[in-house]
Amino acid sequence: MKKNTGICLILYFHLLILCQNTAFGYGYAKEEDPLIKVFKAIILYGRQADWSKVATEVNSIRDRTTDIYRIFKIDLKPRIDRAIQQQDFQTLANQMANLIFLAIREKFYYNRKEKLEILVRSKVRLRIAEEYYTILLAGNVRDYDVRHNTSLHESIHNKFVKTRDTLGSMGFLGTGSVKPDAEEFDTLTKEIETLLLKAFPYFETGEADPAQ
């Protein structure tokens, strides 16, 4: 059996627990990011073998798979559809996890493209990317650390914290402003991506970042 099967099963059990919990908001007045909500629902309904509800949830995020394809040229839609048709929960979970990884990369991509020039947008995107990691992927990274005696989660967490500082600050009443550091942002986010690929070797990254 392939190694990624074991990884998928760990993802499966962690997400079942997460389905019972609430998480960070998105700026929607205490509501979760739509992708997080749908991801949890897909895992829950997949566990219950309620494939019609899985299909409904997947259909609600077609725009997200389209966005990912437009930037990274990875078409997850037919793979996800095939997993649903075959009622293959492991493959579905793997493809959805890959979607989350690419959604994180998407947030990084737009910040790079804008060179962090719009602080509010940059902060929101980074916050969402960190939420995707913390809520949906971090548990599996911790398990990877236990099994391989590594500290990937700590490294990823610390890099997210450092990345926040690269966004700069408007200061207060025109004083104490700090310019963004787009070069350091690029370095740190690429390191985050590399660390995630160590924990999830089956993730696909797509084409080279066109923002570079």
TrEMBL record:
<keyword id="KW-0732">Signal</keyword>
<protein>
    <submittedName>
        <fullName>Transposase and inactivated derivatives</fullName>
    </submittedName>
</protein>
<feature type="signal peptide">
    <location>
        <begin position="1"/>
        <end position="25"/>
    </location>
</feature>
